[in-house]
Amino acid sequence: MALERLSERGRALLVLLLLGLGVVELISLPFGGGLGLPQGILLGILLIIAVLSSAAASTQTTILPTARTTLSMARAHAMPHSLGKIHPRYLTPHISTIIMGALSIAWYVGLTIVSEDILFDSLAALGLMIAFYIGITGFACTIYYRRELTRSVKNFFFIGVGPSLGGAILFFLLIKNGIELADPANSESGNSWFGIGPPLVIAVFFLFLGIFLMVIQWRKVPEFFKLRPQVVPAGFLEGEAAPPPPVADQAAEIEEEIR
What gap in Å lies between CA 181 and CA 217, rounded to an integer? Predict the structure, then answer.
């Protein structure tokens, strides 16, 4: 019950806290002190409102996508089951939302206190990780719907060429930026960690951390990792074929077989 009560106000409090940090940051800027913009106080207030509105959207995009990603993975047994619980009243992944929000705040506040240079280097590393997983998603889309590609020109370009081209571009940028960020001079701090730039070190660290956590989950709940690769049958997009069974259902069947 305590966790449910926390979830009712949790998202709002997390957003307000992050916005409060944004206000403090704005006040510390040259135009923040006394709102002394050359154009006057009104434009200064409008500017701060605009920045805070953007910050509010950013906090939502920080918390919500990660919470729903962990929800999806937990329901498929790829992550701990508790992350897939749904709040009975609000119908949201409350545990995932609270944990992801708390981790976001801890990361931002902690690195801001320790070193803002490391914070910005971590953001550069985040760009590498985003390029990696969204690039893989593009290729996975084409592979998953490959039996639909030749059914129409639209399918070929929008399901085949588009996602694959996007994945290729992202992997090109991943390699290009990875090479550039290996040079310590291209980092925010200009420091060298193990002879290379901090952003690349941070990205590689989280890559191996993810592999380590995946191995733990694999040993603990192997059902998801025993799933067979799926592909959408031809005619699915036209309503002529049934969709593949949900991953969660397949994982449950494998779990029953193991028992």
Answer: 31
The per-residue pLDDT for range 4-40, each reduced to its tens digit, is: 444 455 555 655 555 555 555 555 555 444 444 444 5
What is the spatial distance between Cα 204 and Cα 217, in angstroms, rounded to a whole number? 20
Measured CA to CA, the distance from residue 77 to residue 152 in angstroms comes to 35
The residue count for the chain: 259
* Domain shared by 9 and 92, yes or no: yes
Q: By C-alpha distance, which of 205, 209, 226, 203 is closest to 78?
A: 226
pTM of this structure:
0.68
17 and 109 fall within a common domain: yes
pLDDT tens readout for residues 143-164: 999 988 988 899 899 999 999 9
The reply to whether 79 and 155 lie within a common domain is: no
Max Cα distance, the chain (Å): 72
